[in-house]
Amino acid sequence: MAFRASQYFLGIAVGGALCTVPMGNETVYKYGIMPVVHRIDPERAHRMAVWCASMKLVPVRARYDEGVMRQQLLGIDFANPVGIAAGFDKHAEAVNGLFRMGFGFVEIGSVTPEPQVGNPKPRVFRLVKDEAVINRYGFNSEGHDAVAERLSALPENVGPVGVNLGKNKTSEDAAQDYVLGVRKLGEYAKYLVINVSSPNTPGLRTLQGRQQLHDLLSKVLVERDVLTERIRRKVPVFVKIAPDLSDNDKKDIAAVVMDLQVRCGVWGDYQRSTDIWPHY
User: Fold this and answer.
1) What is the pLDDT of residues 253-277, one digit of tens each?
2) Is 40:51 a contact under the CB 8 Å cutoff?
3) Which residue in 187, 165, 160, 162 sits closest to 176, CA to CA?
4) What are the pLDDT digits (tens) for 108-136?
5) What whole-number distance in Å separates Cα of residue 187 and Cα of residue 132?
6) What is the pLDDT of residues 66-117, one digit of tens each?
7) pLDDT at residue 151, rounded to an integer
């Protein structure tokens, strides 16, 4: 990740400050660290945060999770139920640092087969008063090969890592993009997410239609079964759907996932495009 010298040293300063502040000290974060971060372009601030986490310049949890926090879902053990969703660590650069902070799981991505730059900048916008962010990244991704290399280097005892899969903007075969994701990255994942909800990729949301989704997931599950034979464990598959679907859309999706026995959910995604949120 390339930084100008000033950004590099600022990243070290902010990361170093984070390391010395006890977790839970909201006053220091609110009045000391965040005003500095908010002076930085939001996308650069995001990149700096990922870089800090990749270098383990992050606050460390003061104690380990109590046993009561442990969860098990679909055969996956979670130290606690609070994880970080896809969209923050898009390229699997900061997994170790994020677990160091105490997250119960880390979901990386979305990852597309081939590298793509995403939408033109500016594409990330702060809503300071609303304590929110609007992003229009558009599936910027370093591609399967780069992400696979990083995931393969993670220690065996790292916490649960989910891999969120997307399609390339110019792809003529969406289903094949997701199949390739299962084939290339599935062995490194505790679970896989088929992302068909981003409004920033042309044509992606049409994949939520009943027949389109059935065809897509059928092919994905065939490849997942091949993966199961290869790695001797079954990787759960989830579907990430849009939060603004009509009741009929939801019924169609429910019918597909029940038929194919796929886990389906709406991730708690508050970094949505202005295609969903009103303009501010």
Assistant:
1) 888 988 887 765 544 343 444 333 3
2) no
3) 165
4) 999 999 999 999 999 999 998 898 899 89
5) 34
6) 788 999 988 999 999 999 999 999 999 999 999 999 999 999 999 999 999 9
7) 98
What distance lies between CA 71 and its chain's CA centroid? Answer: 20
- Length of the chain counted residue by residue: 280
Within 10 Å of residue 65's Cβ, how many Cβ atoms? 15
Asked whether the beta carbons of 93 and 150 are under 8 A apart, the reply is: yes
Distance CA 234, CA 231 (A): 8
Q: What is the pLDDT of residues 171-181, one digit of tens each?
A: 999 999 999 99
Q: Tokens at residue 148, please?
A: 């696979």
Rounded to the nearest 5 percent, the helix, strand and coil shares of the chain are 40, 15, 45
54 catalytic, yes or no?
Answer: no
- Provide the residue type at 29 as one letter: Y
Structure tokens at 141: 């991704």
Tokens (6 digits) for 114: 């081939």
Q: Which of 198, 218, 246, 273 is catalytic?
A: 198
Looking at residue 246, its amino acid is S
Residue 214 has a pLDDT of 93
C-beta of residue 60 within 8 angstroms of C-beta of residue 96: no
